[in-house]
Specification:
Layout (H helix, E strand, L loop, with lengths): L3 H5 L11 E7 L2 E7 L11 H9 L6 E6 L5 H9 L3 E6 L3 H13 L6 E4 L12 E4 L7 H11 L11 E7 L4 H12 L2 E8 L2 E7 L1
Parallel strand pairs: 3-4, 3-6, 4-5, 6-7
Antiparallel strand pairs: 1-2, 7-9, 8-9
Amino acid sequence: MPGVSDHYFTADPASDAERRVLGVRLGGQDLDVEVAGGVFSPGGVDKGTRILLDEVPGPPSGDLLDLGCGWGPVALTMALANPAATVWAVDVNARALDLVRRNAERLGVADRVRAVTPDGVPDAVTFAALWSNPPIRVGKSVLHEMLRTWLPRIAPGGAPGGAWMVVQKNLGSDSLARWIETELGLVTRRATSSKGFRVLHTTR
């Protein structure tokens, strides 16, 4: 897929940033955010992320994780929904992290959103919930390594906690759920299906 590495796994994208302000709907509010090229879904909230945000119950309090945050729709929604949450927006893409910080400032939640690279999250932090539209197209080995790193860090308990991930059915959502259960020993169920996507819920 052309440009996929620039979207997902380039620390410093070479493509033109093409920064612009865009109107989006997050957390039931019409908001203006900053987006840019070289970051996943620069045209707004993509279909998978929208389904995730529409279907997942409101986030619990405590430390929350947005894995592969892009410009921040998931992290910002989490922060807007629960003032008692600290949201860790994690990405390897420096441009994405800059956008999250700028958007968090714009929306008045900068004190509760920490946009960092994976090694910027302290080892002692566990997460009351993880929300993600994971980068499936990076390949199974990279994706599996990401999930091996982060899924064991979710706190025990059921909804609204646990890990909530949206994955296209034709990109292996069902096989991913089986892999998580078999390889990581974490219960994973299909929470809902919508428009060709599955929302998976993983708990400890």
